[in-house]
Amino acid sequence: MSYFTFLALFLLIPLAVLGGLTWRDRQRGITLPHEWQSYPAWIVLLAHVVVAVVYTTPWDNYLVATAVWWYNPTLVTGVTLGWVPIEEYIFFVLQTFLAGLWWLYLARRLKFDPRPLPYAQQLRRISTAVLGLIWVIAGLILVRGWAPGTYLALQLIWALPPIMLQTAFGADILWRHRRLVAATLLPLLFYLSFADALAIQSGTWTINPAQSLNIFLGNRLPLEEFIFFLLTNILVIFGMMLVLAREGQARAPAWIKNGLTRVHLTASGPVKLGSEPGA
Fold first, then answer.
1. In the predicted model, is pLDDT for residue 270 greater than 70?
2. Other CB atoms closer than 10 Å to residue 21's CB: what's the count?
3. Which pTM was predicted?
């Protein structure tokens, strides 16, 4: 299975379905609840796509350059940027769109609990501290040079800092909307893991057994790949929720709010943010 075949089957088809469902919702007047209309959802989603590409590119190039994983050169176009084939960059974009559109579809339907948590500050501190401890352990694995833990440690070193920023900012918001988090995350996690297992089985890409734990889910999927999709989807889902939540808007730094305001005004004229229906 070529990399482009993988993208077409497992990402473009569900994206087309979600695009159709989004169009149908617009036609029927089904919009995001007021809770999720801090900013226009399409701007927030596009911003996540940009961040995903910029933040993931150097990390993924390092993985390929150090043979943590590799791709079959006969199953890609041969166009590369750095060490990574162009298909991989397209994957960054499509996965982010898939996670964002799926979250938006569910957010238009699932009810939320508007009541604030009485222990919000403690939850933010404790969750961030736990993640910080895991990050330190991952760093120690790399420093000690334990080869089987390399891929997992590199994932955690890369993904946990932005996730810690998210939990420090709004772990209480995320916990209050845990039903929406779970409903978005779990189907994506298992779907993309299944697709990834098929790609590995067909030889589209390979995870280096010398730099991974060799623990396989269903006797096919390396544990690290499952964790990869867990972490990447968490980044997108948490980010969408925290930026779009009105409670999060009140906590956001002024430069973020001003930047989103400028982008929106440039694209659509002087419209008051949050006054129009979400995507």
1. no
2. 16
3. 0.90
